[in-house]
Amino acid sequence: MVGATVCAVTEPADINDVPSDIRERHATLSQEIEEHRQRYYFATPTISDAEFDQLMRELEGIEDQYTSLRTPDSPTQKVGAPVAEPGAGVEASWPPVEHLERMLSLDNAFSADDIAEWAARVEREVGTGARYLCEPKVDGLAVDIVYRDGKLATLATRGDGRTGEDITYNAQFVDAIPDELTGTDEYPVPSVVEIRGEAVFPTKEFEAVNAERADLGLPLFANARNSGAGVLRQRMDRRREKLDAAKAKADAAGNEGRAQASYEKVLEEYERAKRNLNRMILVCHGIGRRDGFDIRFQSEAYEALRAWGLPASDRPRVVPDLEAVQEYIDHYGQHRHDIEFEIDGVVVKVDQVDLQRQLGSTSRAPRWAVAFKYPPEEVTTKLIDIRVNVGRTGRVTPYGVMEPVKVAGSTVENATLHNASEVKRKGVLIGDTVVLRKAGDVIPEILGPVAELRDGSEREFVMPTECPACGTPLAPAKEGDVDIRCPNSRSCPSQLRERLFYLAGRSGFDIEAMGWEAGIALINAGVVADEGDVFGLDADRLKQVPLFTNADGELTVNGRRLLDNLEKAKQQPLWRVLVSLSIRHVGPTAARALAGALRSMDAIVDASEEQLAGTDGVGPTIAASVKEWFAVDWHQEIVRKWREAGVRMVDEVDESMPRTLEGLTVVVTGSLQGFSRDDAKEAILARGGKASGSVSKKTSFVVVGENAGSKHDKAIELKVPVLDEDGFRVLLESGPDEAAKVAQVGEAEE
């Protein structure tokens, strides 16, 4: 790291001053942390990063109170894990290599207060002149790369910060690591330069690796960081030796029989290993030792890295104060999944190198930098049971019941497992410790087991053969389906409950007062036999539902509100009515397409399968599903009941609305002040335009609001005209020619 120095450790005070129970806890924590640290660096962790951080913070808290326990041997004073000795039983161990400069870790911050405390310490040491450089914290494998006279000399892991594993042999398989540096007049190649960076799988490449492993029947990797560490540290030299030996045997056997088959298998494994190595990317973020080159600012190092042909991120920003630091942290907290690789926080550094040198380092981390860690998205917890849920279309979905655990800011007890095949593919057993992931608003998902912690008491999950809600035998809807379903669509209480909840949701009729509890109460009271009865509810029927009545037998405030909500819901546009019917495959996008093209429920019912399939955004699968749904008698009865209750079945065409967007495709991304997402789409559709969810070269305009993400970047890249909210109003009111005059094309504003 630039400007890193090591401070001397003071002599500890008398350890006898520490209570025995505290000493015992300190010793236990230290041993546990060292074991987990070793597992982490050899890509076989049994706890999540968040759980490791929690253990480390507890140890630091003890040492803050009892400073005599803070010795050079404490995990709080160390970096990484030592390189395993040859023959130590670690499959991927390589020969050790010393770093030219120590490769330190970073202290962590978990709140705005932590960042403020760090900045206050900086100010006490160097005054008020510090600028801050912020960059996303890549969740990868830390590497150290040395170039001598511009040529690659060594590639090493971090190890314990002084000595890492020499994995230079594997560099030949990673295109992201250049063999030779280039230079410019401003940044000539130094005689010696030590590069610091992170090697990581991009998210798409990680998914490709796991897809390939699934096809081969191999266990899936839990996350990109650990799998990347394992891939980069594998002994490709030994794989090559094994391949050469197998080839020699096959040649000796005339390239036939078992020897040839064995060679082909080894060759396939070798090629797959090469392919996975080449899927990795490198993100450079610092410079250690350098001869014949110096810099004044950390940010200048990134310019030099790019000039030398090294992959450095373009996301770092230099900001003047803590308010701007927090804005940067908040931005990437919201957009962390828009980045092509996993990040777990933001690194904040003092930009001026002379101030870095004044601040120096502790034995394990620089004082001039800190890592802000986002709430964890992956944790480990105990899988208590696997149960099944019957959804609104009859699909039976296994889900895990776990010991409650906090992840991504919320407490999670249940997580999806999709289907029986997925349970088997992931190798999950009831009783396992499992890795759980929850990214933002995404439904929590069990990624896989921590097999190393099994004790033999675990058991396999067996998919039920009968519906747990109604007892009907379960079966696939058609031959070859992965999912099994309950065929009792009309009467299964679980399916009806799910359908009621769905039709009341924001994509359906948007009935605020009819949530999960209300739907169950309506079914249990017998006032709703199927969703066709919903709009027939009146005050007398609701009085039969205990949830909606008070002690005097009169309707509660929520009961009256439900009736008001139902009356308003009758005027929802046709596409929402279609969504609320729970037709398989018909979500908001397909429903909008059908309603926009055919304009009435009768026209949709009467249309042929070919006509439906020919509608832009529909296709044969959805068309077949629509025809199949309307062929069922009790489905037709639902539509009849809704029609008689006054539910809107026709979208009137506003002839006064000019079709100014006819033939245009408009994408809306981010939050607009004057339009909800649905309002914006309706405005586009009403003027004859197409409201799309993805950006391509065929997109006419992209409208960006607050917190616009990757779609905005894609529009800039493809030179698609970009409009802000005011520009969107121009488009709606005056048409595309006037909007083009206020659009931004090709380059993002500074």
UniProtKB/TrEMBL annotation:
InterPro entries: BRCT_dom, BRCT_dom_sf, DisA/LigA_HHH, DNA_ligase, DNA_ligase_AS, DNA_ligase_CS, DNAligase_adenylation, DNAligase_N. The keyword Transit peptide does not apply. Residues 68-90 are annotated as: Disordered. Zn(2+) binds at residues 467, 470, 486, 492. Residues 236-283 form a coiled coil. It comes from the Bacteria. Residues 68-77 have a biased composition (Polar residues). Keywords: Coiled coil, DNA damage, DNA repair, DNA replication, Ligase, Magnesium, Manganese, Metal-binding, NAD, Zinc. NAD(+) binds at residues 49-53, 105-106, 135, 158, 198, 349, 373. Its cofactor is Mg(2+); Mn(2+). SMART domains: BRCT, LIGANc. Residues 656-726 form the BRCT domain. GO terms for molecular function: DNA ligase (NAD+) activity; metal ion binding. The active site is at 137 (n6-amp-lysine intermediate). GO terms for cellular component: cytosol. Its EC number is 6.5.1.2. One of its GO terms (biological process) is DNA repair. It catalyses: NAD(+) + (deoxyribonucleotide)n-3'-hydroxyl + 5'-phospho-(deoxyribonucleotide)m = (deoxyribonucleotide)n+m + AMP + beta-nicotinamide D-nucleotide. Belongs to the NAD-dependent DNA ligase family. LigA subfamily. DNA ligase that catalyzes the formation of phosphodiester linkages between 5'-phosphoryl and 3'-hydroxyl groups in double-stranded DNA using NAD as a coenzyme and as the energy source for the reaction. It is essential for DNA replication and repair of damaged DNA. This is DNA ligase. It comes from Jiangella rhizosphaerae. The lineage of its organism: Bacteria, Bacillati, Actinomycetota, Actinomycetes, Jiangellales.
